[in-house]
Each structure stands twice: as C-alpha cells, then as structure tokens.
Q: What sequence folds into this?
C-alpha cells in the first residue's frame, strides 16, 4: 500500500532509495513502540517471581507503574519539541534505548535502582505518539484515518502480550534476570533495524508540515487544553481511560495470583491472551469509528471497560479458566483498545499544524492517568484489603469521562 499524497523529491531519492509507504511507516512505528510497552510492564509481569529477590511486596508493584507514568506525564510536554528537533525515527530510537537501559537496570536486582528504571521507562513513553501522529497524518487517507491510527496502536497490546506470554516461561528457563537481558538484546536489534528509514520519514513530515510548528516552549503544548473545549474533554477521557488501562496491565497478573489463586505462568498467559485479543479489537474499534463516528465508539468503549472492571470485583478462586479468559479478553478489548480512536480524534479536530502539540498535551493526561490509576487502586487495596475493588472504582471513573467526551464530540 503506497501513499500517493507525498512523493519523494529528487533530493530524497538521492539520500535514500526507499519510498515513503504507509506500510513501512506503520512498521517502523509499531516495532519500537511495542518494545517500549513491553519494557514498561516487564517488572509488573515478573513481580511474583522477582519481587522477593529485589526486596519489595509484589502487591504494591502498581506503584512502579505509577512512577513510570509520573515521569512520562512531565516528559511528554517536551515530546513534540524533541520530535521536531531529531525527527520521528531518531525519537523512537531514543525511546527504545531508554527501554533497553530500563530493563538492564531492573536486571541488577537492586531495590535502590528501581527509581532509575522507572525514570527511564517514563522517558521512553513520552515521544512515540507525537513522533508517529504527524507521519501517519501525512500518509493515511482521511477516510481511513481512525483505522490506520488504530492499526499503529496495536503496538501497545503487542508489547503487553509479548511480556505476558514470553517473560514468565523465559524466566522459568533462564531466570528472571536472564529474561530481562534477552529483552535488552531485542531492543538493540529493533533500534538498528529501523535506522535506514530515518531520512525518508523525516522528509515526509517536513514536507507535510512545512516549517516545524511544535511549541518551542514545552508548556505551550499544554495550553491547547485551556483554550479548546473539545481537547479538554478528550484530555479528561484520556485521564480516566488510561487510569484503568495501566492499572489493568500493572496489577492484573498479581490480581489473578491473589484472587483466583493462579500461578504466575497461567496468570501471565491470561494477560497475554487478553492483550492479544485487544490487537484485533483496536482495528475493529477504529473501523467502527470510521463508519459511525468517534463519539459513539468512545462511549461504547467506556461502557464495555466499566462493565469489565466492575465484573472483576466478583472474581474468586471458583472461577473457571474459561471465565477468567473471557474477562481478560473483554477487559483488554476495551480498556486497552481505545488509543487509536483517540489519536485519530485528535487528528480530526486539529490538523497538521497543531497535531504534534495537541497530541503531546492530551498524552500528558494519558500519563497522568497512568500515574494516578495505580495509586487509586493501591489506596483502595490498603483501605479495604480487597485486590479487586480498585478496578470497580476506576471503571466508574472511565464511564463518567466516556459520557463526557461523547457529549462534547456529539455537540460538534
């Protein structure tokens, strides 16, 4: 599938023989982003095995995820500026390198180095979407924009499914530290593999946007939320949806071990199946948004994820494997599948000149939600001793912000 909107100029053909195809753009954005996600949830997935060696209570591993997203919420304000200065490929390469350093830091087994690992994970999360959005906006046909952005966002469940499926058995074979070293090697391979596309895609973005327009001051991107009512609603949705999404991936394995009495390999597999299913659902939700509109689909997502979250409160050791699998697939199919529709919505309400700043500003609330959700979950756990009730609280929050954004978008 080759984009026809932006043909490479003769100067570009001299610099590189590669044509700027949409398929290549998706591949070069999906692979590093999936890796970044995989590194971010590596510790939560391995916590039932690694926590005792490192020296912390596995039930509170969600706080590591909170720290990641706290850093990311600040760093994303600089994301558009960083992408404008180094280009989309170098930006995602730098993010993947931060992920490599994060898993190497965790692999030391030092409790005192976990804050450094959280900082590295948080920094790695910040630029990928500000890097990919201008590129995909340039190459994606407008009538298929939600589908294309959703297809790119399969990187998130791909990374999560990789960690859920492969890290626990790999840790069983070569130790949890060996599994993390293997992840670091994979990251280096991805960084090298996407390097040849740098000149081509830098040129595509520059030709589409004209002179770089992202904020020279990071806080300018955040000002978009103050001046635009629609972006405020989208940002509020991002906060609530992300609070549930990242709590789900951060604690679901530990939740299943504690509540359903599964071993870590089975619990990781259930998470992996759920996230694998969400790969398909992201594409489905994107196609539905192209056909029926963003507002209706975002409302549907809110209803489904809230229902799954509230259902999780009732999980016990009496639940069958098939019931737990269904819960995981439905939960991930909504709470982990909304991001592509969100990014396309931002593109639809902004355009090329504002998309980098608008994406960065709303992504700051995605990461703020990722920071806050596990804290809310942990606070509910501390107050009640119930490892499931926090999901219910966050599900109600997701439902509320879903209704809000659907109402605002529906009013135009």
A:
């Amino acid at each position: 599938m080759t984009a026809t909107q932006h043909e490479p100029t003769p100067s570009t053909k001299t610099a590189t023989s590669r044509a700027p195809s949409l398929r290549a753009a998706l591949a070069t954005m999906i692979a590093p982003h999936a890796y970044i996600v995989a590194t971010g949830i590596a510790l939560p997935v391995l916590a039932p095995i690694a926590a005792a060696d490192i020296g912390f209570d596995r039930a509170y591993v969600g706080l590591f995820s909170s720290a990641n997203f706290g850093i990311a919420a600040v760093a994303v304000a600089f994301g558009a500026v960083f992408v404008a200065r180094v280009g989309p490929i170098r930006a995602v390469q730098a993010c993947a390198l931060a992920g490599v350093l994060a898993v190497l830091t965790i692999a030391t087994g030092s409790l005192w180095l976990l804050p450094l690992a959280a900082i590295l994970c948080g920094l790695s999360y910040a630029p990928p979407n500000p890097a990919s959005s201008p590129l995909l906006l340039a190459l994606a046909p407008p009538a298929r924009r939600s589908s294309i952005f959703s297809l790119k966002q399969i990187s998130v469940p791909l990374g999560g499914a990789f960690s859920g499926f492969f890290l626990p058995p790999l840790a069983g074979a070569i130790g949890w530290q060996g599994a993390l070293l293997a992840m670091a090697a994979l990251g280096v391979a991805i960084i090298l593999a996407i390097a040849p596309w740098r000149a081509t895609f830098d040129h595509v973005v520059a030709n589409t946007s004209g002179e770089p327009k992202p904020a020279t001051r990071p806080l300018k991107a955040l000002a978009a939320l103050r001046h635009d009512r629609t972006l405020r609603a989208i940002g509020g949705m991002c906060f609530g949806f992300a609070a549930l999404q990242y709590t789900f991936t951060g604690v679901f394995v530990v939740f299943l071990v504690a509540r359903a009495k599964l071993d870590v390999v089975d619990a990781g597999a259930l998470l992996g199946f759920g996230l694998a299913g969400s790969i398909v659902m992201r594409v489905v939700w994107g196609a539905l948004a192209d056909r029926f509109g963003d507002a209706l689909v975002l409302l549907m997502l809110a209803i489904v994820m809230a229902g799954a979250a509230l259902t999780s409160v009732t999980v016990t050791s009496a639940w069958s494997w098939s019931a737990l699998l269904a819960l995981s697939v439905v939960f991930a199919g909504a709470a982990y599948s909304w991001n592509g529709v969100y990014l396309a919505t931002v593109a639809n309400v902004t355009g090329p000149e504002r998309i980098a700043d608008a994406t960065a500003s709303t992504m700051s609330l995605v990461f703020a939600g990722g920071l806050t959700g596990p804290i809310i979950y942990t606070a509910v756990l501390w107050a009640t001793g119930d490892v499931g009730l926090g999901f219910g609280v966050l599900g109600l929050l997701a439902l509320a912000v879903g209704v809000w954004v659907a109402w605002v978008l529906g009013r135009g």
